[in-house]
Amino acid sequence: MFLQRIGNKGIRLGTLFDRAAARHPANFVVLDHDLDIAPELGRRATLTELAGLIDDFASRLWAVRVRPGDHVVVHKSDGFDISLLACAVARIGAIPVLLSPKLDGETVAVLLRRVGQPFLVTDQAKLEGSLPAEVLELSRQTLLTSGEYPGTTPLADLAGVPRVPAITMPPDHPTLITHTSGTTGIPKLAVHTGRSFQARYRPQATVVAAAVGRSEPIAVHVSFVHSRMYTAMPISILQGHPLIILRDDDPEPVADLFVQVPPGFIEAHPNTFLRWEVLADDPRGPLAQVKYFSSTFDAIHPRTVNRLLQASRRKGCRFAQAYGQSEVGPIAGRTYSLKDGADFNGRCVGMPFPGMTGVRVVSRDGRPPTRENPGFIEVKSDGRIVTYLGEHHRWEKQADGAWWRMGDLGYRTKWGCLHLLDREVDEIPGIQSTLEIEDKLFTRLPELVEVIIVPGKDGTPVPVVCTRDNKPLDQVAWQSAVAGLPPMADPVQWRLEDLPQTATTKIKRLELARLLNGQAPAR
């Protein structure tokens, strides 16, 4: 798309903090946790300090013979140093492969085989915990960010090695590999280039620049291995915003931090915002200065949007919802205000970004796609990944020239607005949109913190519900809430922490259905 291509020299992750520090040397990043690779840095660091830290660890990696084009898998305990290590790997022309701390050891081993003898950056806790012993054999060399383990090299032992200059790779060279959510089995490894990342950065950067002033802090609670982190982070630091990085989304410490450093813009997962509904009742007003809330990962419920907007005291506060995917970045978007209320149509995900992204809906049966007969959603963006590592045939199945099949069902209105009804794999016969029903149940039952509708053994829709503080579901209120909705089985109540989740806290619906029906998970 032409606006994504003009002057696109690639994202240049390896020198990102150098360039940001050159523009805003005293600007800072606030953390809610200590860095495993530099605990002495504390929880507030300048961009200059972080640029130096990235340079240092890039040099340590070079000292163990990591070279341009090498793959370096980062799979360690959760923390922002995952993102900093990704930048360090890219700084010497190598390719960071980021694997979520939430992945089980068997899956990590499968992905290591797919990469093919990469360097592995991990820690003692992972090696003694979830990782199988074979990961040492599957890796060219294993490097530790903390602790000790036989047959590995602690990065701390390499302190003081000579610094090496940054290496800038061509914009079409792979710059980062992330993995898909794995909601349908083993995750795929998505290969991003510097050019594709810069292309998906642009529509988001345009929105942020217009939304809040440069001096306003931006708070980010995003998986450190997700591609979204590597556009959210550059937007914040290059535009001069103080950056608040959150590892945890527990409402109480988040509120404490936001009272100390009030954000003007917050980017987070939908389920994180759901947890933060309670912050609207905090008398200290931790969300009072927010001008924009933003989420791009999954469907977000109207009730949550309305509660968060009520918590802000800023005139013209908005909630920005973007529709996209790890493989292509943001594609369409819209904003909500308090005027939209708590029962707006959450299935409307907005319009494409002019000159940057495109959307079409392809018929499944020869008839025009409509609400009653949704079609396959396909999108176009220069932010699209170039392949799935080791599985290009799977990439080809979703690509149709410049178009990319999202795996979603929906339709477009006569005005061009895109409506998302369901994932293809989640469609339940007789249910027009499980997401729409879930939206309605959230609005009608304030005590719900999650509701997922999955097919039972006989295909009957089964609502799996979680309540705030795990209180028993009010059956009378439930019967009132489902009035007028399609027939469903009786609700099944689970604890939220027992639901299978991805790295971005999305619920793995297929796995949940298998668990509910007593079936073994897919591999």
UniProtKB/TrEMBL annotation:
The residue ranges of the AMP-dependent synthetase/ligase domain are 17-384
Record's superkingdom?
Bacteria
In Pfam terms, one family for this protein is AMP-binding
Q: InterPro entries attached here? A: AMP-binding_CS (IPR020845), AMP-dep_synth/lig_dom (IPR000873), ANL_N_sf (IPR042099), ATP-dep_AMP-bd_enzyme (IPR050237)
- The protein in question is named AMP-binding protein
The protein's organism comes out as Streptomyces thermoalcalitolerans
